[in-house]
Amino acid sequence: MRLILGSASPRRLDLLAQISIAPAEVRPADIDETPLKDEAPRAYVRRLAVAKAEAITLQDGEVVLCADTTVALGRRIMEKPRDRAEAEKFLSLLSGRRHQVITGVAVRSNDRQIHRAVMTRVSFKRISESEMTAYLDSDEWQGKAGGYGIQGRAAALIPAINGSYSNVVGLPLAETAAMLSGFGIR
Ligand SMILES: Cc1cn([C@H]2C[C@H](O)[C@@H](COP(=O)(O)OP(=O)(O)OP(=O)(O)O)O2)c(=O)[nH]c1=O
Fold first, then answer.
1. Assembly ipTM
2. Annotated catalytic residue, options 68, 83, 111, 137
3. How far is CA 116 from each of CA 11, 42, 82, rounded to the nearest angstrom?
């Protein structure tokens, strides 16, 4: 089977490379990522991963992998911040608290489709004003759910996680490997 990565995220490609999986092609899907009214975070990421996978036209013999990662504080969904002010708002809400990072993963061929959602708990220390300014100045918040990247400077703000690390970066590798292996991709 030929693996198509349905994602524009360079991080997902890197994560797959970490477990020696090289997609034959990258074919990102562009879909509307607006949450539905009162949509729960888990349902939201699952719906988006499936919608991304269904938006990609496949030939027989092709398998597509799509994912969506979001940060959830209770029922509140934090997607990628629109600007610095929104990143600051998100990080202020996350400061000194524990939240969830949930990734929806969908794998589809023309014959069948599977999907799941994986959750990791992430604890933030209390972020001081100077830490906040330095972090926002770094621009690392851009293009990342919740306005931070655990793989970069934000690691200094995160004393503990519970669950999959790769899930926080954008793709839970143990679960993804198991799902792909069901489609003959190893
Ligand atoms: C919380 C967190 C998120 N992220 C990233 C992972 C995802 O790329 C991004 C969330 O956006 P997504 O919408 O999941 O993905 P994307 O827009 O980057 O790519 P595509 O839709 O084409 O697949 O946030 C980190 O890199 N580190 C982190 O610590």
1. 0.96
2. 68
3. 19, 9, 27
